[in-house]
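If your schedule permits, I should be very grateful for your opinion on a structural question. What I wish to show you is a protein chain and, alongside it, a tokenised description of its three-dimensional fold. Would you kindly read the sequence against the tokens and tell me how you understand this chain to fold? Here, with my thanks, is the record as I have it:

===
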Amino acid sequence: MNTLTANLHTMMASFYHPKPDRFKILIEAKAFPSDHYAVISQLKLHGYDPEIGLIALSPRPGETYLRTSDIVDTIKNDPQIALVLFSGVQYYTGQYFDIKTITDAGRAQGCVVGWDLAHAAGNVPLKLHEWEVDFACWCSYKYLNASPGGIAGVFVHEKYATDFDRPRFAGWWGNEKTNRFEMSPEFRPSAGASGFQLSNPSVLNMTVLLASLQIFDEAGGIPALRAKSLKLTGYLEQLLLAVLDDHFKAGHIRILTPSDSAQRGCQLSLDFPERMMQVFEGLHARGVICDERKPTVIRIAPAPLYNSFADVRRAVACLKQVMDTVFH
């Protein structure tokens, strides 16, 4: 339903209920900008100063990604946190957060815990019900391959399925199917996440997503794809470190993403302190499709649904050619 940021607002309308003694929102520093805008606007909407109400947690000095223990400690040590809203996989660094541990910590402190799964859906295993996540939102145009502007999705934990008195944005598509076309002014929400729908979704968007999900099923689903992904990205990391050893030693490149495969998905974020755009353009000129995130990062993500080990080997060979030229 909707798109990702719209769904974040829809979920926060129902799950973020700040009080004078508990109003803060905890996110990771350098969260995707749209998430940042959304939580700031929610704080302002409720009359709170984002300078006080927003906690954007950064890695320790000299480190490139967050320690789970630091996230948990922040939650435990600030009783004013009302909402914990993290990314499942961090878009900039590629870190796959420990969703269960962070959710457990938040719930133990009485926080609502929500997740932006834009870079996690279709990429890593997710057990949202088992992990007792309160809500989650995701888009479908990254690893789910449903194209830019594709329909997004939400998860709402089953314990809220029949909480019909919960405040929410309401629209006719969230009404019970049995009386949706009675055109009654009384809103009777459907049970579960479907009760948070607002409007009739695009048939074209639904069709594109359905076609992609059918291919996921043909490929064996997330367990099979994750098994291949671990090997693909591990192979990418090993090749980078071996083939580009001189460039790593010279400080031309470093990897921001955790080396522990359990703490990452497909993506490796490569940091180029200098000449990132020259490297990026050189890769594209050689047919290596990746993307850049200014100021210094190139993201390479071998997708197990369609990328091969040969693709990874060729990409690293091209990167060496480019870097040898750029940093000659």
Observations:
- The chain has a mean pLDDT of 98.
